Amino acid sequence: MAAAVSAAWAKVEALAASPGAAAIRPLFAADPDRFARFHHKGGGLLLDISKTSVSDTVLAALLDLARAADVAGSRDAMARGEAVNSTERRAALHIALRGDLPGAGGEAHREAAEVLARMEAFTTAIHRGEIRGATNQRFDTVLNIGIGGSDLGPVMVGRALWRAGDPMRPIHLGNVDGHGWETVLPQLDARRTLVLVASKTFTTQETMANAHLVKRWMEASVGPNGAASHFAALSTNLKATAEFGIGEDRVFPFRDWVGGRFSLWSAIGLSLALSLGWDRFAALLAGARAMDRHFLDAPLESNLPVLLALVEAWHVNGLDLHRRAVLPYDERLRRLPAHLQQLEMESLGKGVTVDGAPVPRATGPVVFGEPGTNAQHSFMQLVHQGPRHVPVDFILVACPDHTHADNHNILLANGLAQAEALLMGRDADAVRAEMEAAGVAEAEITRLLPHRVFGGDRPSNTILMPRMDEAALGALIALYEHKVFVLGALWGINPFDQWGVELGKVMATPIVRELETGEVGAHDASTAGLLTELLRLRGG
Ligand SMILES: O=P(O)(O)OC[C@H]1O[C@H](O)[C@H](O)[C@@H](O)[C@@H]1O
Question: Which of 377, 442, 444, 519 is catalytic?
């Protein structure tokens, strides 16, 4: 298989090295049906990859690569519950959180369904006021304490779907920076606040520091034993949750086969169920499930996650484009880029293959983004005219949930126009003609012409959502999750571990002590110098 994969990569790389490989406009000129042939639908979403330089020949080579790398076989192994997270010897069964699966995944789903049933009962009891705080007040606010995958998913979905009048107000505390807590604090009435400590490991330094801080505040506010009735835990580490003092009936577990960045569908989503209502959380899961079905069933050539991954492989490995911007044209999706940063960069930022050999080619690109149209007024200049191209994912929502049609038309028009401008550019003749028509003097035209030319042929994908509702958002997140998995298979890397996060964590521990005691230990000269200076600035 390794030889076949190498040969398939060689073919893709040879195509990318051929003259004009990055051109997109000629593909449209040659084929009036390009949109029809290069967009596909699945899980309620539409993906258009036509505005990329993926031609029929390139797509055929990329699909050959997917077959050689046995993407379909790896996918099915993941769904069966095999230990696809090889370094940690774990399955990756986030799909099982969203529905029943054949084989080993089926057992995992039954287990997940039991926890979901407990989450639903808890949610209902809180909403009905059957479970109340220490002072017998109903809970109206849910504070989720967590970081990384125990924060970004719930925050992103919460920002996307929560509306005034929904069952509970969601508040998130992620960063260990005390200013975060100081910002959150005035928004909280301890008597009405339910606190969720969300941590897969229940050992994450920042989360535990915040959890203890909030526990002290809660005990000071509602009484020394009050915390017990105000706290719940979302974790795989039942020993640590007990040690923290959270009773078993308030612990919502999940298993180690749920990766942190894939965990919003598990107990980690409890803040969503509480704030949005159970039915809407269930609809989110159902939306993801629709994308799962599509990913598992659709042929590779019309499979949205597979196509999105193949386009990325073409950009990264073929065309040397090691970054991608994500622009959701929906303000409610403003935290989607942050979620994708973790999902994609933590999963695909790997330098060795599953066998421990150095990867023979580049892996995950840098992902960044901002909602449109705001992005247009910040970094899009570089995307339009910078010498290095930046592929973009545009996400457009057909129907808004407001009545301001004019605004929505402007929003959508801008999204479409950005993608069209990146594709078509504007050549010197057009710029000259426009300036001449405006009566600009020849010398001025000559001076400004190079600055006003747009090269075009800059690639983008567009994803259309009918409406930004629970089902479509669930499908969108699952689309990116599966895309990450496919890229892992193509690159031969494990997308489910994150060893690279460890070293900094380990090294922080002694530095905390040094900051406490003022005694600087052995470090490189820069770190020692900065520590000394920090201590001096603090008057230590
Ligand atoms: O949920 P926790 O165990 O607290 O982990 C929170 C986060 O921290 C770690 O450093 C990992 O890099 C993330 O993948 C994880 O989501």
Answer: 377
Structure tokens given for 31 = 């084929």
Q: Which atom of ligand 1 is nearest to the CA of 150?
A: 1
Residues 6+ apart with CB under 8 A from 33: none
**How far from chain centre, in Å, is Cα 4?**
32
Q: E strand or H helix at 361, and its extent?
A: none
pLDDT along the chain (540 residues), means of 10: 94 98 98 98 98 98 98 96 96 94 77 96 98 97 98 98 98 98 98 97 96 97 91 96 94 96 98 98 98 97 98 98 98 98 98 97 98 97 98 98 98 98 97 97 97 97 98 98 98 97 92 96 97 92
User: What H or E segment, with its residue span, contains residue 196?
Assistant: strand 193-198
pTM of the model: 0.97
Residues with CB under 6 A from ligand 1: 147-150, 199-201, 204, 207, 260-261, 346, 498, 501
Task: Just give the CATH number of 94-279.
Answer: 3.40.50.10490
> How many angstroms is it from 419 CA to the middle of ligand 1?
35
Are residues 190 and 299 in contact, defined by beta-carbon separation less than 8 angstroms? no
CATH tag for 2-68+298-424+458-491 (out of 3.40.228.10, 1.10.260.40, 3.40.50.10490, 3.90.850.10): 3.40.50.10490
Each residue of 446-471: b (16+ CB within 10 Å) or e? eeeeeeebbebbbbbbbbbbeebbbb
